[in-house]
């Protein structure tokens, strides 16, 4: 996921950040849903609970080879006493825990691994936990779709280099000017656009005067995968010496066939 995200759960904004490729959810924000003025008090009360400490200890033993079990046993024995208090920073400092992080300041707060955060949310409010999970899952699905689009776009860029190299080696005589060379590249790019989208880059821009970018920036994952395949094929056809009209005909037929297959593929549909 991206470095920082925010989701809205029952009118409460909850921050999420990535730490070592794991999702950490802000306990401070969750606590604000119940106690907006003193959210840290709620977190400390949760940490005083023996069941909470059992949960945290087991989680750390499963995921943290540097967890200090001796210090943990000492803390667990004190749990339940009226005099027992524990802050997130103390928990991390004493035991070497990695499931919770806490930082003071305007942009700080207490964050916990999603496994732990969901348990805290349940302690605060079962209803809040269920909505938190729902919004978190929605965020992850959106990220998966974006990831699929990014992968497809990068694949297209890589194959475009193969495509342009084939143009340079086979279609551009040494005596052409830079302007003429650019025209050849644009012409070949539009062969791919025509084969897949049925229009040139200029035609698309004329139809979408207010949109930024180009026609390929608005392609979906299926189209990007197909476009990457067409770029490879066109590079091969150029090297074989096929004329533009013949290449366009073959590429268009290929695009039709591939799009039919790709739009029916379940794995690709998940990335849409």
From TrEMBL:
Q: What is this protein called?
A: KilA-N domain-containing protein
Organism, as annotated: Ostreibacterium oceani
Say which domain of life the source belongs to: Bacteria
Can you give the residue ranges of the KilA-N domain?
A: 5-139
InterPro entries xrefs: KilA/APSES_HTH, KilA_N
